[in-house]
Amino acid sequence: MGMKATKRRARKPDATRQKLLEAAFEEMYRRGFQAASLDTILSKAGVTKGALYHHFPDKLSLGYAVMDEMVKGSLLERWLGLLEDQTGDPLRAIQRVLQIRAANADAHEIEFGCPANNLAQEMSPLDDGFRRRINGIFEAWREGFARALQRGQAEGTVRRDVEPRRVASFLVAAVEGSAGVAKSAKSLPMMRSNLEILVEYLDNLRPPQRQGRRAKARHTT
Prior knowledge:
Layout: H1 2-31, H2 38-45, H3 49-55, H4 59-84, H5 90-104, H6 107-112, H7 115-123, H8 128-155, H9 164-185, H10 188-203, H11 208-219
Helix pairs in contact: 1-2, 1-4, 4-5, 4-8, 5-8, 5-10, 7-8, 8-9, 9-10
């Protein structure tokens, strides 16, 4: 009994910290970092102010932790984690990820936008800690897409004259830009249409002898 009680006590601080991170993420997602209310975060997490300051010395450190432990993992799992689950040639895998994200986009996502994109617009000009973290998330995403395109070149499914890093950067920018304009327009169809057009664009990266065949296969799956 004594050992079990000790384990429960050891886990409790971690559980409290996780509650704070989840409540802070939700508040920041809905209101932004600057407008996020610590009182609301404490209320949602069901913890005291003393518990907050035990884990995070100030609001900024809490915001950084949300970026590092909530936003980063969620965004990269939605894109790179999904990419890793796909089979077939790497270019087709990226296309499938875009199709899945288009199909799974919902009204909540359109109303509130992409958390990383929201914070990039709000905080990158104001705080270098946020800026570096946000850029790190986008850089990991770009690198994941670039590696897939490089594998496609090695396998002969992506043209040799394609520059993987530049294309990957364009894809991430196009996805995030689409999220921003769809949020402003409150238009789920706009978001889906933009992602579908990116799928079509990627067919142009194939060697000429593969373009027609792969485009036909994409439309029949």
